[in-house]
Amino acid sequence: MYEPNVVGDWQEYDEHAGLRVRVHRLEMAEPPRGRDDAADGLTYFCLRVTVENRGNRQLGVHLEDGQIDVRLGPDGESAFIDWRNSQFIEGFDVYPLRRATAVLYAAGAEASLSLVDVQVQLRVEEEWTGRRLWAGGIGAHEGVTGGQQGAVRDSLAHQVSVFLRDQAEEGTA
Question: Which domain of life is it from (predicted)?
């Protein structure tokens, strides 16, 4: 069974030797150029998608609007993507041992932010890669009340978070 990556994990692409991608720094944040009127009543958050080239040749990378899909909550509702404030990777040559990062601002109902799924499909050298999925959340480790508690407890991101916290606590004893 296919399991998603946890936010922060690197995902390598077999079809492009040395290319890897990760979704990271999923956090609440206000957009730099102000809120979009269409996001009235929603809570803003930010995430980063980093493309790294560990291969031995440069790769032309495209990560633009429509190539990142963000879903929220147990029902997987679409997040509002603030294209005006987001920064994408538009036709950038990533040289060996270099990175390029896209910064995405999105918004959704605050109660749904504990479950965030991000799907990314890169275009490399005019070829589409396979879609990859990252699962995470904002505030999932701080405790959730209501009907979402079971869904968060069972999420892969929450399981990893609990494991890491338990390991850190054991090391400090």
Answer: Bacteria
d(CA 42, CA 94): 35
Cα–Cα distance between 116 and 4 in angstroms, integer? 12
In tens, the pLDDT along 10-29 reads 999 989 999 999 999 999 99
Q: From CA 51, how far away is CA 20, in angstroms rounded? A: 6
The answer to whether 58 and 95 have CB atoms below 8 angstroms apart is yes
Judged on CB neighbours under 10 Å (0-12, 13-18, 19+), 150 is exposed
Q: Is the pTM of this model over 0.70?
A: yes
In angstroms, the CA 65 to CA 117 distance is 16
Mean local confidence (pLDDT), 96-111: 97
Contact 19, 55 (CB under 8 A): yes
Give the Cα separation of 173 and 170 in Å (integer): 6
Tokens of 145: 């009340």
Query: Which of 48, 72, 50, 69 minimizes the C-alpha distance to 137?
Result: 72
Per-residue burial over 4-41, b = 16 or more CB atoms within 10 Å of its CB, e = otherwise: bbbbebebebeebebbbbbbbebeeeebeeeebeebee
